Model the fold of this input.
Amino acid sequence: MVALVSDSQDSLPLLNVVVVGHTNTGKTSLIRTMLRSTQFGMVEDAAGTTRHVEQATLSAHNQPILNVYDTPGLEDSRALYSHIKHLQAKSKSTLPVQILRDFVANITIDDPLEQEAKVIRQVLRSDILLYIIDVREPFLEKYRLELEILTQAARPIIPIFNFTAENPQALATWREHLAAYNIHATLEFDTVAYSFAAEKRLYQKIQTLVDTHYIPLQKLIDYRALLWKQLCLSGAKRVTELIVSVACHREIKTDQSKLHSDFLTEDHFHNFVRKVEQQCLHDLLTIFNFSEKDVEIQKIPVSNGHWELDIFAPGILKAYGLDVGSAAAKGAAAGAGIDLMVGGLSLGAATALGAIAGAGWSTFKRYGDEIKATMTGTKWQCADEATLQVLFLRQKYLLQKLMQRGHAAHATVLIDKADNEKLPEHWSQLISALRQNPAWEMPTVTRNNNQQYQHIEHQFLAALLDQQDTN
Done:
């Protein structure tokens, strides 16, 4: 019995969803956000950007589920409404949907309403309408006329409120106006401030209105949820890898010309941190299918009180809420950002290790380099905790911004500060463990299977994705 239902569902024609609305309300933007791609169509702040009907297909596990159609904007709804009314007056006994069919069948290429005819033609070919509303606009007569025309097509309509994140009062006003026309099944879907929950609700609303496609749509919902979870997890793992690589990294300090050597080592270390952070930024953009244009990358101070991107810029610690009065913070604020360490541990711990150097082979095998360093006076330089903290908070802020960014957004993301972001629990202990395991700098099977490393990774991922620690 279940197999028969499944076969019946799989043999269904693809669901056709048409995106309609007045010009420049965000129709193409919605589809870009659904596709998570900036490549579909054209998005500009100008009327009539989309001149033809464009189509894309959404699939689940390589199984096509629905076609979504982008349409030109309804630019002259008054003229269209008057024309439809004229046709209705001539054929009073004809159903409204037939009037629309007659309209598109008899329109000519050079007719002033030819663009509106493209929209109506696709509406008649589709199963469900997504009517996009820019809530920043007042409820004008043209919107009422458009809704009256579209309802004559005898297709389910879902009004979708766009640009809602910064306009809560305008959203409430629009809801009141639509309620007056007995339209209540609406949806908020901001194409700039993205939310997967809103995307999921869109498919669920379509399910309720086109129940014959319920099962394929559920496959799509489950698949998109899985993809989104994997996407966010990939981003969080990339940030974790950055923190691990910098925390585990060591550079040896030579004794030749102490002042000159310190300067060269410090500068080399700074460049290493900048390089790996830049690579992480590039990888995050690739993971979320954005480009360099989406993030403002600057090497000089940003004006209007914003801190520059360079992690070693003077004042950046204060921007991230660190105690600028501490000795470590003062050093980092001056451009140091590194600790001078013996064996990658605190001086006290290294001294203790030196005292037990003869304790046995297992101790020497684990801390051999540290013990040798203590005996010979070799010193390493490592990223200090303050630098790692800024690095983590900034990357978390970037990750959150990319997760909440629609693919129709135009404004760049300025990565400057992250006042509200939190560090993982037991941050100092986690960093200490990483610094004591320089072999973990690069991914290996041994490292990834290490129970202590897995715990550290779990703590980082939970903090990056704002999850509760279940361990």
